[in-house]
Amino acid sequence: MNIFDLSGKTALVIGGNGVLGSSMASALVQHGAKVAIAGRDMAKADEVVQSLAQHGEAKAYSVDVTKREDIAALLQAVTDWSPRIDILVNCAGRNSNKPFFEVTEEDWDSIMAVNAKSVFLTSQIIGKHMLDAGGGSIINISSVSSDPPLSGVFAYSASKAAVNNMTKFLAREFSPTVRVNAIIPGFFPAEQNRKILTKARVDAILNHTPLGRLGEAEELQGTLIWLASDQAASFVTGELVRVDGGFGAITI
């Protein structure tokens, strides 16, 4: 028996039009799941769907993850396509590299809305759907900046710390029906961190990473599929799983 087989499952990847999100969507499709790709940039979402067509079923949807009505409409649209959502991946992200005293209220509100409020909203709306349907797996994408916080990304670090806390809270709230976990990626060349990955910062990261390199998007796939599988991860909930090349394992 292949405990990583997701055939018959439907996954919704919020932020599935980005570098990390599209890689995770690809893994889900290749393991048998139907995948809904949701994001604000429909052109990118359509490109992802086209790239997945050779492996299985995928469809693109437009959503503003900071708006309750958009997420409710997304749930309706996806369940019209496939009656039940079994896997939810919260991968939407926004970052800023402003010094603390230059962070505006608008910066704070925007980052917290995309990174944290979206998890709250999808958990209330999609999570309720999963509870009513009798099962599911929610996988939140956190960050190494969540604990301890990284310099230069104040609002982002705070938002991802909130994601960690919500993950643990919801694992208890939704148990035993729906499992809720988070992946803590290390440093990957994703859109939201390219602005902060100067050469000096990359050098500092590599000096602090035992594996001595940045991650590749495909290196998140194994952890994602494990957490998505009701067989492989049947007794795993409330966990924050690091995929960071050892970054969080050392101090100096």
Automatic annotation (TrEMBL):
PROSITE patterns: ADH_SHORT. Keywords: Oxidoreductase. InterPro entries: NAD(P)-bd_dom_sf, Sc_DH/Rdtase_CS, SDR_fam. Pfam families: adh_short_C2 (PF13561). The keyword Oxidoreductase applies. It comes from the Bacteria. Belongs to the short-chain dehydrogenases/reductases (SDR) family. This is SDR family oxidoreductase.
